[in-house]
Amino acid sequence: MILKPGKSTWVMILRSSMPAPKNTLRTSQKLGLSLGLRASLKILSMGQLELRQHVQSILEENPFVDEATGEVGADDFDSSGKSDFIEELAVSLPSLPDHLHRQFHDMNLSAAALKLAETFISYVDANGFTSIKHEEIIARSNLERNAYAELLHAIRDLEPTGLLAETSWQCLEWQAEKNFKHDPLLKDILSVLELAANNLARLSFQDKKNLAESLHVEFSDLQKSFANLYQLDPFPGRNYTLQSQNAIYPEVVYQENGDSIDIIVHNHLIPELHLNRELYEEYKGKGDKNWEDRYAEAENLIRSIQYRQDSLIKIARSLLVHQYDFFKTGTSAIKPLNLADIASEVKLHISTVSRIVSQKHCQCRWGVFPLKIFFPMRLKSNDGSNLGSEDLRQAILELVGQENSEKPYSDSELTTLLREKGFDVQRRTVAKYRNLLHIAAMADRKKTPKSK
Fold it and tell me: Are 391 and 379 in contact (CB under 8 A)?
């Protein structure tokens, strides 16, 4: 028979495997349940490629579980078609060069511009920039200069903006032009900061005052432009690698269908399993504990796979609701979310949700992502609002940028100010994020007052 566990099946399994109420069996019963539970939890955490290997190993060793044959519906794939489909779905997370190749090949570039693009890609570094100047790349390529004019236009249309720029400053300039066309002051600020070679995080309140005066703008307008500045990404290649990663299998596919988004949860790598009850009846009652354990293992495998699939479907639906803006606009729209939010909604234990999202990937219009991307770190706030780690970084940058350089804030003072802004953080957390932002300690930021 094909075992498709539901509530009634679960009860049936428990009853059929219930040992006689003898004291001598209590310890072994607890041990058996513990081993079964551990096996179930392991299955929840596995990615489908790993789970497939696990299932195949049990099929080879356990006589009570077989792969179902001759019961596949007309709408299912045949074995060869299924293999092709699996190979198509098993993808590799794109490396940065792969990401660039795909975009350029979708832009209908001329043959010369496309050839030059390939040369540019060969010089990309881990931050997403070219490791040498564009002029030098062109000289080495021996291609006509008009190919570069076409390519440069294409480069500035790449996503994320700023890839293949020569420097971080050029990258920021391109992003400012694309995302904040209404803010010409932002470009002036970038030019001044580049000339001054000033670290953005260490620009003091007085420095900003002086900058506003030199640019002949209101200080409030300057502050607004700096708020836009903090939204730019100076290292657009940091979310990619220079080498392709191992093949993965996106089990959840979010597919746009007009104005709606469909969810497809694949399990094609896992064979449909058959519980060999007839063989078990032959061995039943012979007092062989080993065979009883192997049959329990077979039951537990089928039940756990079904539970894993049902739970993944519930979680995938809930993630679509909570992170809908991401699926429509991209990674910048990911909202703070924690496992407890999803666990409460789908009525699963938080540890179950954690195991289900572990090592699982989804595919959408933006690419292939681990499900964990939908759970960015969320900080406690005093008013109950959602504050992410990126909010904390920006708040620290703003506070340090506004401080008096002669009396910079200590970590304790920053903690107090951040709490006033709604962040429920400890001093050690503030110190950690300050270091991550490469902001020096108070003593190193302090400037000696100018003599009159």
Answer: yes
42 close to 51: Cβ distance less than 8 angstroms: no
Q: What whole-number distance in Å separates Cα of residue 409 and Cα of residue 413?
A: 6
Query: Which tokens in the block code for residue 179?
Result: 């995302």
Distances (CA, A) of 17 to 11, 53, 294, 382: 10, 27, 12, 51
Residue 34: predicted pLDDT: 52
pTM for this entry:
0.47
Averages of pLDDT over each 10 residues, the chain, 452 residues: 29 28 35 59 85 88 80 38 43 74 86 88 88 87 79 90 90 89 84 63 68 83 81 79 66 89 86 86 74 88 92 94 87 78 91 88 83 72 62 78 83 90 85 76 74 50
Amino acid at residue number 99: H
Between CA 133 and CA 125 the distance in angstroms is 12
- Tell which residue, 157, 159, 163, 219, has the closest CA to residue 189: 219
Q: Which of 186, 193, 196 is nearest to 217 (CA)?
A: 186
Compute the distance between CA of residue 341 and CA of residue 352 in angstroms, rounded to an integer: 13
CA 98 to chain centre: 18
Q: Based on C-alpha coordinates, what's the Rg of the chain?
A: 29
Helix then strand then coil, % of the chain, to nearest 5: 55, 10, 35
d(C-alpha 390, C-alpha 336), whole Å: 10
Amino acid at 79: S
Tokens of 292: 């009883």
According to the model, what pLDDT value does residue 448 have? 66
Task: Spell out the alpha helix ranges (H) of 202-288.
Answer: 205-215, 219-229, 277-283
State the Cα–Cα distance between residues 37 and 19, nearest whole angstrom: 17
Domains, the chain, in order of start with CATH, read 7-88+267-308 (no CATH), 96-229 (no CATH), 379-445 (1.10.10.60)
Characterise 197 by phi-psi region: left (phi > 0), alpha (psi -120 to 50), beta (else). Answer: left
The whole-angstrom separation of Cα 153 and Cα 137 is 16
CA atoms of 51 and 305, how far apart (whole Å): 9
State the virtual CA torsion across 265, 268, 269, 272 in degrees, nearest 10: 110
Q: Which H/E stretch holds residue 341? A: helix 339-346
Return d(Cα 307, Cα 309) in angstroms, integer.
Answer: 5
Query: Measured between alpha carbons, how far is 28 from 33 in angstroms, rounded to an integer?
Result: 9
| Bond into 160 cis (ω within 30) | yes
